[in-house]
Target: Phosphatase and actin regulator
Amino acid sequence: MGHSLNRESSRESHGSDSDSDGPILYTDDDDDDDDENASAESSLASKIRRRDTLAIKLGNRPSKKELEDKNILQRTSEEERQEIRHQIGTKLVRRLSQRPTTEELEQRNILKQKNEEEEQEAKREIKRRLSRKLSLRPTVAELQARRILRFNEYVEVTESPDYDRRADKPWARLTPADKAAIRKELNEFKSTEMEVHEESRQFTSVHRF
Model:
């Protein structure tokens, strides 16, 4: 009550001043109250709109029967679900029982329980064993003598251009040294590479120098 009297007295004093000194501009507190009320109404309206949107979405949600018809939800009872879980558990137990043991994994070199020093020692042992086997490897001459390495496997073959040799007589241009080298190579091939029966060996011709 006291506040209202003070306001009225202040208004009267302002009015008297305005009569004497001219018009005075002032602001009213009702404008701020209107802004606050408008903001509260807008927030309330947005909440109502959100609730309406959620209600619409929930209303449009398909029913359980529709989901089952679309095969999204399986039509299983509680007993059927328990049976499916039991089958899955049985399969897992069977798979786990077939899992290889630790010893089998170590033998397959899948599981390693050695430390770094033991691994390095094993690598050095493998290297020594390979070096020993390579040192005992037979030479090319030994392989030829044992007829493991054939003539066509170690002879050097070079590419040559294709051209017509029918009118050419290359043997007419051979020197005596070339002829001797050819005969020697043919004799070595016949004696080491060409399989000849013992009874037919006497008919095998040998080129003489």
